[in-house]
Amino acid sequence: MNGYFITGTDTNVGKTYVTCALARRARGLGQRVFAFKPIETGCSPGHDGRLLGPDQELLVAAAGDWQQGELRGLYRFPLPAAPRVAAEAAGAVIDLEAVVKVAGRGAASARALVEGAGGWRVPITHTADMSTLARALALPVVVVARAGLGTINHSLLTIEAIERDGLQVAGLVLSQRAEDDPDFTTSNQREISRRWPGLIVVLSSDPVALDPLVRRST
Predict the structure, then answer these.
(1) I need a labelling partner for 176 at 20 to 30 A (CA). Which of 16, 80, 93, 148 fits?
(2) What residues form DSSP beta bridges with 74?
């Protein structure tokens, strides 16, 4: 499988925004993309009464809207909580083997961008968390973090955990929002680079910033 597993230092750090930007930029460079968030919580019913995963739909659209059925997303739960907690509330159990199988099918003819839910240690089942899924997919990991206050500690701890689990961190993306101070973001990038020698990308609005990652995955 070729591509990336996208995780975050926390929830709401911009994982879906970054994954969509990666997908659109890759398509702009002529690549076929499979953008997949297998598990989404906090879902609401759509017009047909079935649960709709808004992040899943954004990813599918960014990839060109060719994905259908399970390739659009495998699990959707209404409770806005960790996958294991949300699944338990819905009387369901998440099957990681099924997730890996569907991901492999989608990635058979496209570059895979698989987005996790929450952070690296978020539980999926009683015995598995997001790191378990990432290891099963055997994809290099892109870490998404806030650009502002707190990101130095959260980014380094997440990178350390991923590398300790034996997976490669392909890069860290600082997701810079309109209200973030660019000078503060640059300072955070510099401080993280003092402790970790890998690729650090700042993404604001120009997806060209992601080219080192997009081209590396070819």
Answers:
(1) 80
(2) none
- pLDDT tens digits, one per residue of 40-78: 999 999 888 899 999 999 999 999 999 999 999 999 999
Identify the active-site residue in 15, 25, 37, 111.
Answer: 37
Active site residue 37: yes
Q: What is the pTM of this model?
A: 0.95
Residue 52's DSSP bridge partners are 44
Quote the radius of gyration of the chain (alpha carbons, Å): 16
Give me the helices (H) in 3-146, please.
15-28, 54-62, 83-89, 96-106, 130-137
CA torsion, ordered 3, 5, 11, 17, to nearest 10 deg: 0
Q: So where are the chain's domains?
A: 3-216
Superfamily in which the 3-216 domain is placed by CATH: P-loop containing nucleotide triphosphate hydrolases (3.40.50.300)
State both tokens at 82: 């960790």
